[in-house]
Amino acid sequence: MSDTLAPVRPGKLIINGEAVDAASGATFETRNPATEERITSVAEAGLEDVDRAVQAARAAFESGPWPRMKAAERARVLHRLGDLVLEHADEIARLETMDNGKPIFESRQIDIPMVAGCFHYFSGWASKLTGDTTNVSPAFFTYTLREPVGVVGAIIPWNFPMIMVGWKAAPALAAGNTVIVKPAAETPLSAIRIGELALEAGLPPGVLNIVPGRGSVAGEALVKHPQVDKISFTGSTEVGRHLMRTAADTVKKLTLELGGKSPNIVFADADLDAAVRGATTGIFYGKGEVCAAGSRLLVEKSVYDEFVGRLAERSKKLVPADPMNPKTRLGALVNEKQMNTVLEYIDVGVKEGARLVAGGSRQPVNGKGTFVQATVLADVDNRMRVAQEEIFGPVLAVIPFDGVDDAVSKANDILYGLASGVWTRDVKKAHAVSRRLRAGTVWINMYNFFDPGMPFGGYKGSGFGRDLGAACLNEYTQLKSVWLNLE
User: Fold this and answer.
1) Confidence category of residue 1, pLDDT binned at 50, 70, 90
2) Which residues have a Cβ under 8 Å from the Cβ of 475 and sit 6 or more positions away?
3) How many CA atoms lie within 13 A of 326 on its CB side?
4) CA-to-CA separations, 370 to 279, 318, 482, in angstroms, rounded
5) Which residues contact 64 (CB under 8 A, 6 or more apart)?
6) Which of 111, 82, 114 is nearest to 97 (CA)?
7) Half-sphere exposure of 113 (CA within 13 A, CB side)
8) How far apart are CA 233 and CA 337, in angstroms?
9) What is the pLDDT of residues 47-96, one digit of tens each?
10) Angle CA(397)–CA(354)–CA(101) in degrees, nearest 5?
11) In 21-105, where do the E strands start and end?
12) CA 308 – CA 314 distance, rounded (Å)
């Protein structure tokens, strides 16, 4: 399993329109989890680098052309960036797969169109952000202005690095903000490349800065920096809580898209063939390293045994393989630490009394890599750790239920509230259950579908605020009221 294409050049910080080394000269290695081989070295942002990026973004916002540019011109630049992502799709997808271990099919055919789609979609919003006039009194002319919030820090996770650049930078830039993206140290390469393409597209210096590094250093510095006006974060609930406490000191605006343990509910009257396919896609897409993964499968008792059998059979056919092979559908977990965490949870589940019906083990490819089999744990009680805690890997907990009320009760009996699925042929039941689920997204007879035009975010411990859709533009703007005395 070797990549015969050109070697990957070292990654740099992108600050104020230039690719630069870290002030300290520090670098870190990024490694391919499928081959365990070094990919390249990357400049590691420290406190001084983050401050340089913030100062550049602040200057670009306060006195640069971007916020003052005609909205149609900002739209043109962002649309061009989306075009460039498509023009360089094979290169960026390769970087993503090498860095993350996900199948090239996902990187190239699913992730790339979403990234480009975000820049294309939000480019259209640049000219459509408006205020209102309000009839307060004949004595006044009163109106509102919707203005950019300022300097935005985007802290993105390792599971979907290039998608997260699109989700967060595209709307923030469309609204006239300047942005600093802090990609995860595990997967910095695609974000850096998109940052380079942004300069080629015509973004002025300082408008989009990329500072890869450790969350405890570069991420923490962004959150603490007094000249950063807003933080948009995707990651764990534990870190989200910490960011809330830290951001309180500077009263920053926050968007937090946090963890999930999403229920995927299959009723007896569902199309079971479609539901089996949807259940496997819901958990094994992205190797299960997906915040919205349908990791809790709730199946009605009258079809439970049949469904578990069919699910186990299908899961056993999903074999880990070389992520660079276009036919592969189950890649390598992001690193050894994450693989060990997943394997430990499988052991916990069996010890708690769950029945292992598929997978359960590490399965190297050509003797290497952090590959874990597609794993199904049946007969899970909703209070077990494997049902309550986010595993973030290809592990599905199957839970029986008896009727609508029991399904809803078990679905909602969780800290999280990010996503959910409902499988039924009964349209009334589908809508009724959807209203009762405490989750930011409900997929009906489908799972894991996203679009730049549809908002995404969580309830409860899964965070607040929204990415995507027109709604997310509220996260990157603020409202000003203006009164003019007419008397």
Assistant:
1) very low
2) 171, 230, 232, 253, 255, 465, 466
3) 3
4) 23, 16, 57
5) 178, 204, 205, 206, 207
6) 111
7) 8
8) 22
9) 999 999 999 999 999 999 999 999 999 999 999 999 999 999 999 999 99
10) 45
11) 27-32, 37-43
12) 10
Give per-residue pLDDT as tens, 375-397.
Answer: 999 999 999 999 999 999 999 99
Residues marked active site are found at 257, 291
- DSSP strands (E only) in 258-394: 263-266, 296-300, 355-358, 375-378
pLDDT at 129: 97
Rounded Cα distance between 412 and 431, Å, is 16
Q: What is the mean pLDDT of residues 139-160?
A: 98
| pLDDT per position as a tens digit, 185-240 | 999 999 999 999 999 999 999 999 999 999 999 999 999 999 999 999 999 999 99
The yes-or-no verdict on residue 20 having pLDDT over 60 is yes
pTM over 0.85: yes
Q: Give CA–CA dist 304/297, Å, rounded.
A: 11
Q: Which domains does the chain have, with CATH numbers?
A: 13-258+462-482 (3.40.605.10), 263-451 (3.40.309.10)
Residue in this structure with the two tokens 């990329």, named with its chain if needed: 210
Beta bridge partners, 399, equal 298
Contacts 24+ apart (CB under 8 A), 307-310: 307/266, 307/272, 307/275, 307/276, 308/357, 308/376, 308/378, 308/398, 310/272, 310/276
